[in-house]
Amino acid sequence: MKHILLFTLFISASLLSFSQRSKIDTFNIFQNKKKEKRDAVKEIQSHPLSKQDSVYYIKYGKNSTKCTGYCFHEATVDSIHIVTLRKSLQAEKNYPAKMDTAQTTPTQWSMLINSIEINSFFSIPEKIGNPGVDEENTEWIELNYAGKIHRVTFDSTGPDEYDGIKNLLKIFKTIAAF
Fold first, then answer.
1. Which segments within 88-160 are labelled E, that is strand?
2. Domain containing residue 15
3. Integer Cα distance of 136 and 129 in angstroms
4. For residue 169, what is the domain's CATH number?
5. CA 24 – CA 10 distance, rounded (Å)
6. Model pLDDT for residues 102-118, shown as the tens digit of each residue
């Protein structure tokens, strides 16, 4: 009986010691993890894939707050499809949401891809001008490059001072037809 009592005491002490050590280790693991700020431009520069293989989609959209009818327009282009969406900003039964899909031609995709300046685009601030202020039109362009998404929103004055976006925007508007 004495042996069983000693054995039980030994096991209990071992488990208590192990559980205390595990709590400390677990606490230290979570405490030592600091949120690291990542530089998307550096990650993109070191990405081994070609630009053709790495651009998953490009999205362009615009909306107008002083508008009746289809005031929201957005197009998403990838290497296979062009998907356009038009809708009213308010629920209006006269203007139901409309979605159209078309095939992206290799020429269209190539033109878009070649107009992108990846490093310049990812260095553009997420907001240019005053989009949405004083009933101003809002436009945006979004790029998914190797799983890294960067969206730039701007007002009607446009992002012409940014080389990483102005050529892309012109070609995109032609392809999306708005």
1. 98-103, 127-128, 138-145, 148-155
2. 1-34
3. 10
4. 3.30.1560
5. 21
6. 999 999 999 999 998 88
